[in-house]
Structure formats: C-alpha cells, structure tokens
Amino acid sequence: MHGEPSPPPAAPTLFDWEFAANPYPAYAWLRTHSPVHRTRLPSGVEAWLVTRYADARRALADPRLSKNPAHHDEPAHARGRTGIPGERKAELMTHLLNIDPPDHTRLRRLVSTAFTPRRVAEFAPRVQELTDRLIDGFAARGEADLIHEFAFPLPIYAICDLLGVPREDQDDFRDWAGMMIRHGKGPRGGVARSVKKMRGYLAELIHRKREALPAEAAPGEDLVSGLIRASDEGEHLTENEVAAMAFILLFAGFETTVNLIGNGTHALLTHPEQRARLQDSLAAGDMGLLETGVEELLRFDGPVELATWRFATRPLTLGGKDIAPGEAVLVVLAAADRDPERFAEPDVLDLTRRDNQHLGYGHGIHYCLGAPLARLEGRTALATLLTRLPDLRLAVDSTELRWRGGLIMRGLRTLPVEFAPVPN
Known about the structure:
By secondary structure, this protein is of the alpha+beta class. The chain has 15 helices and 10 strands. The longest helix has 31 residues, at 239-269. The N and C termini lie far apart (75 Å).
C-alpha cells in the first residue's frame, strides 16, 4: 500500500555564512523545486531569484526587465538598497549597469573602443609586467595572501592605466577600492565615503585632462581622454556621465577580476589533477588548455554570483511564475552555470570542457564590456603563478577560508598560500 507522496524537503536557508561558503547545493534545490523563487533578501528587499539556465538566459535578454532602478516599485524602507552603496549620493547612477537603450547603446558605443581585441592585445605586455612585479613582491618569502597581495592589486593597477589615472595616484585608488570590497568589515559608512572620494577625484581628473587634451588623439589614448574627446566632438556626455562611466569601469572591472583570479586559483589548488594538467600544458608551451580552462573556472565558481538588478516594466511570466511590473528580478548566474539540463556533469571541474556557453559575463546587451580584459588578466595571472611558483599550495585547510559577504559578487576574503621561496 502506497502512502501519501512525501513533500519536497524544506527550502534551504539562503544568504547566511554557511550558504556563502558553498551556495551550490542550495541552488540545486531551487533549480529542482522552485526555479523562479520569491525571497526576502538580507537587506529587506523582496526579489525573484532565477536559477535555471534557459530561464536565466531568457531573462538576461528580455527588454521587459529594465536595469533602471526608477522602475522598482520599492517600499520606502528598501529605497537605495538595490545598487552599489553610495552611488546615489555621489550622483553616479547614470552608468551602464543602471540604464536602458537608447542611452545605454550610446554610452556603450563610446566606451567599447577601449575593449576591442586589438586594444586588449596591446595591453598584454603591461598586464604581464604588473603580474611579474606583484609576484616579485612575495616570491622570496615562500608565503603570501594571494587576494591582498596579488588578485586585488593587479586589476586595480590595470584599470587605472586604462582609464589614465597617473601612477602616483594609483595607490589612492587601491585604498578606496579596498574599502569598497571589504563590505561590512570597514568602518561604518566607509563604502559610501570611498565612492564619494573616488567621484571627487574623477571629476578633478576629467577637468585636468580636458585642459591638457591634445588636438589629435595619440595611439592608445587613455579611456577618460577618449570619453572627453567624444563629448567635446558632439556626443554631449555630461561630466557626471563621464565620471559615472569611469567609476563603473573601475567598480565592475576590478572586483570581478579579483574574484576570477582568487576563485580560479582556489579551484585549481583543490583539484590537483586538473592543476597538474594545466601546469604540464603550460610547460610544453601550449596555451589551449589555459583558454578553455579559464572559461571552465568562470563557469564552475565564477566571480559574479548574481547578475545585477533588473526590474519588470510590464507583466511577464518566467519559469511559470507571474512577475508584476515594479518587481525586482535577480538572475543567479552561479546556479544557471551548474544546470545539468545545460552542462554535462556540472559539478565537475573539467578544464578541457568545450561546450561551455556559460553566463559568467552575462548575456544580451549588458554582456560584460570588459570581458576581454578580464580574460587576459585571468589567463596571465594564473599561468604566471603556476609557472613561477610550481609547488603553490594552500596554507590552511580549504574549509577555513572565508568568503566575502554581499549579494552580487562571489569571492574569498583571503587566500593564504605557501611555496618554495624563489629568490628574485
């Protein structure tokens, strides 16, 4: 005799510290039992979480889901809790992550010239130089924290060079950016203060560069100068738009790469067979496994856990759930990229994986503009680390590592490693 069918297990707890350490089992539960799931976030804001690959891909390209927070039907207590801390007060809202076409199309076109394959290839020697310089700083010690001494400064200095921030000012940027990714660990209000300082600095930098702008653009002109030139030649970018654009390129362009390098190194160190295959191929001068390997690291434990906020402008149905205008939607990239309906053996790290259309850099018109630069930095950092420090290993048990809190990004607070000291 058959009894009643057993109810599905209780929904897992989301967004606590245990979840942050390994969210993938909870996401697997959501994909199976509640693929479009309404939840109250730790901030008090209610949102729909989209966890299946097909739904996620559809949502990322759906024009009814706006990036503009003005469409959010948010209660007063939640106001200002959906973006980057401090950006509203610092008048930095008019950037690519918060706008829709036609403004998005116009601004993206202006900045896309900095990220063409050719421009990124020209930047490769500088990325290699920065990578080697940072490793030189700790190679002789035989130990390091790869987040603070390597994964964090590398993209900061690279994006500063790209924007045209003078070398003597780049350490200030490093300090402000450090405050932005420490989230709750810094002084109260520290994130908003750092954003404000960055905004003030960018306004001054734009003013200085406009005064000194040569009549003709030099090859490889920095990005801020290029934006000023476009503005002066009829594109009519406001100073706020130029500052907001520089800010979001810094914000979106550094923490994602910090996490790609940190999460990627962690995944390799905890999968010794895969790491050994990669080291062997690098030693043989074959870059093919590095290329597919970085894509697999982006899929397996990528730097962006949830895509940035979207808000319904019209009624829509997603994964069988009706979403009303004004409601917030968060696409869970980390869940979609482990969907067994799309990826064979999704919980297995396989650096040779070929069919790998992961969503690590998004999809649709908001596909990450800086993805070519991030890939270059990720490939250079991992290849150089594994080549120069071949016996690299974790200095603590993997279970002792702590992941940063926060909703959108996924990254380690620290990554202590050991290796045989290498004299410089």
